[in-house]
Amino acid sequence: MRPDPKKLAIYFHWPFCLSKCPYCDFNAHAFENVDHDRHRAAYQKALTFYAEKLKGREVVSVFFGGGTPSLMKPEMVGALLSDIKKHWSVSSDIEITLEANPTSVEIEKFKAFRDAGVNRISLGIQSFIDKDLKFLGRAHDVAGAKKAIEIADQCFERYSFDLIYGRPDQSLSDWEVELKEALAFAKGHMSLYQLTIERSTPFYMRHSRGEFKVPDDVEGADFYHLTQDIMEEGGLPAYEVSNHSSQGQESCHNLVYWHYEDYIGIGAGAHGRFTLEGQKLAARDHSAPDIWLERAEEKGHGAHEWEVISPEDQFTESLMMGLRLKEGLSIPKLESKTSHSFKDQINPDHLQNTIKEGWVNYNGQNISLTREGLLRLNQIIPYLLG
Ligand SMILES: C[S@@+](CC[C@H](N)C(=O)[O-])C[C@H]1O[C@@H](n2cnc3c(N)ncnc32)[C@H](O)[C@@H]1O
Ligand code: SF4
Fold it and tell me: 269-296: per-residue pLDDT in tens?
């Protein structure tokens, strides 16, 4: 069965933040004097560009990510959503998510974002411990985080929040207490990320100088298992490596990525994957915000030249995305989507080895990773293909 080419998800990247967190290597820049009117016009232009190319689609999800998209003006969010409705049909249960930081300035805008059409908010809470929020360089405290959750609950039908664990000096029992407290604030969805020390961040330098330690692989695995146990008991099991939800509360937008369905990305550094005239294309916008803005104004979009993804690369990308999901992938679907046979692409000895190790579940029709396998996701995929 071919994927339904009519469905489309739209990602907007807002690359600006009030300040840059020392652990973050996302395309996010501390910048105060953003010209909102210029940006609004450029995003609208880029949207029109895609609308002309991808006619007749049904938009199932819109995601405003960043950076800190809660710094956008609600009027701009409203204008983009209204343009989307003019360009395409939208599904009756469309998910429209906006990432927000829990500072007071942003909380005050939640109602306006809801009135603009946002129906789901994703809050960057990160921790329920003040000293750890300070260490992470966050601009909010625990009281602010709780207030943000309360207002999100009043304004939106659905909200999610992110936490970062495996922080320096955090013991397993500290995390257990904090995560159980966090669960009491959840409404169907949470994203839980283990702290990673990324090159080119201030944390990388500080970590290399020995200023702090983070869990090694063995300790990290203990954190991961504890997290899974608590979330399963709490009714929000993982549906993806770092994403947890009750049934039916999965993020529709993220599922589009993991099911390797079509999405476009607009804004500095945003990526897209979509089908056009029978080919799957990869798009990537210029990552420097000023260049992106100039290009979008001049050419009507800020993308580098699109690349055609070969069926073999589609197979690899589909596998990489789909194995992130607890449910894994349907092999007949993977084969029909990519016109490549599973048996030809996967090394049979390596597949058997991963099954024996207890990392992979495989029944000929479906392949998925076990909990132990998900811990080794990045090693297992090249091994299976090798
Ligand atoms: C791109 S950020 C945007 C969200 C929003 N700007 C914020 O910070 O709250 C998405 C999430 O990635 C996670 N994240 C970013 N850098 C990370 C790192 N080095 N290690 C673990 N999680 C990270 C954080 O939980 C963050 O909320
Ligand atoms: S973690 Fe969020 S707020 Fe902090 S710099 Fe990255 S995108 Fe900006």
Answer: 999 999 999 999 999 999 999 999 999 9
Of 197, 224, 256, the residue that ends a domain is 256
Sequence letter at residue 5: P
* Cis bond upstream, residue 67 (ω within 30): yes
Q: Mean pLDDT in each 10-residue stretch from start to end of the chain (386 residues)?
A: 72 96 96 94 98 97 96 97 98 97 88 97 97 96 96 96 97 98 97 97 97 96 98 98 97 97 98 95 97 97 96 95 97 93 95 98 97 95 94
Distance CA 190, CA 183 (A): 9
31 located within any domain: yes
Best probe residue, ligand 1, of 16, 18, 24 (max atoms within 8 Å of C-beta): 24
Indicate the pTM of the whole model: 0.96
Report whether 156 contacts 122 (CB < 8 A): no
Q: Which two tokens stand for residue 316?
A: 């690899």
In the chain, how many domains are there?
A: 2
* Ligand 2: centre distance to CA 34 (Å): 16
Give residue ranges with CB within 6 A of ligand 2.
17, 20-21, 24, 26, 28, 66-68, 101, 124
What distance in Å separates the CA atoms of residue 46 and residue 25, rounded to the nearest whole number? 25
Query: Ligand 2 atom closest to Cα of 20?
Result: 5
CA–CA separation, 215 and 299 (whole Å): 47
Nearest ligand 2 atom to alpha carbon 67: 7
Residues of the domain holding 350 = 326-386
d(CA 22, CA 125): 16
Does residue 277 lie in a domain region? no
Whose tokens are 């970062």? That residue is: 164
Ligand 2 centroid – CA 53 distance (Å): 32
Residue owning tokens 């960057």: 124
